[in-house]
């Protein structure tokens, strides 16, 4: 079960060759691709791609923290109407970003909390962006966790202590191209953390793994990520995709599980 739990295939970077990108993904064994949303302007293209590849490209609805502006409440109000759609698999991409613009922290937190409540109310997993804000987003989830929350800390690059905190919250960690980077730091984490609560992702078109670093990322490169995870955890490729695939079933539930049972 090779599943790309995070890929933005609906953006302009794929507008000219999306069908070939999907075929390459299928060719290496990628069985599902989750499409986290970015903002109000990306909703339609995301849903169009999901409609073109039903049960293969699975949409999520959320407002990326870098897209949170003063009108976030209005934007979220329009997005919320889509959460009842049968094919929506998660809330996200949401969270807090302290890398690009710290001045919007207050409204980022407010937008994040609204989306956390969406996930609770609708029993949906939440996909969390936490660039330069991992401890802060962990604290937000700790404060909100009442047994109803589950989800993924996307693009995880934290410490072993943070691995434990996230596991204790019942959440999972997304492993992407950074695991292949020489100075990515995950070579110091994965040998000790193992595969429990780990999930694979690409974040395409961003963060392409070695040997494609610096180029457009795509779901077919998930195989390279899985191979590197196998090396770092001293296990096999088959074991990596088996365990991370099962973890995806735990997170996303029936929308993925129905195709395996």
Give a written overview of the molecule:
The structure is a single chain. By secondary structure, this protein is of the alpha/beta class. It has a single domain, classed as Metal-dependent hydrolases (TIM Barrel). The chain has ten helices and eight strands. It has an eight-stranded parallel sheet, sandwiched between helices. The longest helix is centred in the middle third of the chain and has 18 residues.
- The CATH homologous superfamily corresponds to Metal-dependent hydrolases
**What global shape is seen?**
globular
Structural domain count: 1
Number of strands: 8
Given the helix and strand composition, which structural class is it? alpha/beta
User: In which order are the strands of the major sheet placed?
Assistant: 1-2-3-4-5-6-7-8
* CATH topology tier name: TIM Barrel
- Rg is 17 Å
Question: What attributes does this structure have?
Answer:
eight-stranded parallel β-sheet, 8 strands, 39% helix, alpha/beta, 261 residues, TIM Barrel
Please sum up the structure shown:
The protein is an alpha/beta fold. Helix content is 39%, strand content 13%. The model has no long low-confidence stretch (mean pLDDT 96).
Question: What is this structure's SSE topology?
Answer:
Blueprint: E1 2-4, H1 18-27, E2 30-35, H2 43-52, E3 57-61, H3 72-80, E4 90-95, H4 105-122, E5 126-129, H5 134-144, E6 151-153, H6 160-168, E7 172-175, H7 190-193, E8 198-200, H8 222-233, H9 237-252, H10 254-257
Parallel strand pairs: 1-2, 2-3, 3-4, 4-5, 5-6, 6-7, 7-8
Helix pairs in contact: 3-4, 8-9
